[in-house]
Amino acid sequence: MPDTILGSWVDLRRNWADFPFESTMLDADKPQLISRVTQVLEPREETWTLYLMRDMTREQFGALADMTMMDRSLRDNQDAAVFIRSDGDAMIYVHQEDHLLIRVKAIDADVTRAVQEAKGIARLIAQTGAYAKDERIGWLTARPQYAGTGLQVTYLMHLPMLSMMQQLKGIAAKMSGEHRFSLSAQTQGDKNPANLYLLKNLFTAYGGTDELTAAVGAVADELTAKEDNLRRKVLNNTSRSTYVDQVFRAYGILRYARRLTEAEFMAYWSKLRLGAMAGLLPADKAAIDSLLAQTSKNQLMQQIDSSMDEHTIHFIRADVVRAALNGG
Fold first, then answer.
1. Please, what are the domains in the chain?
2. Per-residue pLDDT reduced to its tens digit, 277-288
3. How many angstroms from the chain centroid is the CA of residue 52?
């Protein structure tokens, strides 16, 4: 898997034929969809946990939001529910725009395998009722752009060089103009200190699953090639570069800092990872990537007792990072 890719997953959208789309469904009918999924999953050997948005506190949802594949907009939909498999590699959203959105992690970026698993889950749930399908269009979805295969592939990509060299805006604008793919910041708002981006297809009416996955994969490969080319030119060909200096400064700060806000950490983390990928720093890629989960606010909150205030998180975050970069 290219080092630009931190993760990938597939989404499969389906709607039952015997219910109207979410926008016109009666509130009284909505619990029936959750019951249909429940009756299929309960007999399974693997454990699935159901989370109802209307019953969750902000703190409880915050713990779920740390999961890479979690749709944070779910919190704003009180009718929605999500079933999460115990390994965290599969989720089933109910009432999140479509009746069903099945999301499966692509282990080692094996998108084809993830698609097969998502389709398998869809077939299981189809035992409770047929899905809406048009002979000409394919599977029907709430948004016409997703009709067809109902399949969307997402890559979580780290693109620090393209970002620092201010090339991403142009690339994203071109994609948007072609209406085939989108490239957007993982974080909400204008700031994206970690330089993490989501690449996904914008429509699903391809000739088949293989054609669709190949098309998204080709764009990911193109972005990777551009990122690698800039990395070689800017970082590997000269030691007297302001970008090389930024990499080593980030490494030094993260190894010795006693206090790190989340935004500070994410910005330094991005440069740390860039330096490791360029072979400039003696840092392990797996350890660097694991820091994203270890330093999340909700993860760190578990280490704070009742006598501490929330500002303590910044000090604990620095402790976690120092331990990881200095061998414990």
1. 5-228 (3.30.590.10), 242-325 (no CATH)
2. 999 999 888 999
3. 21
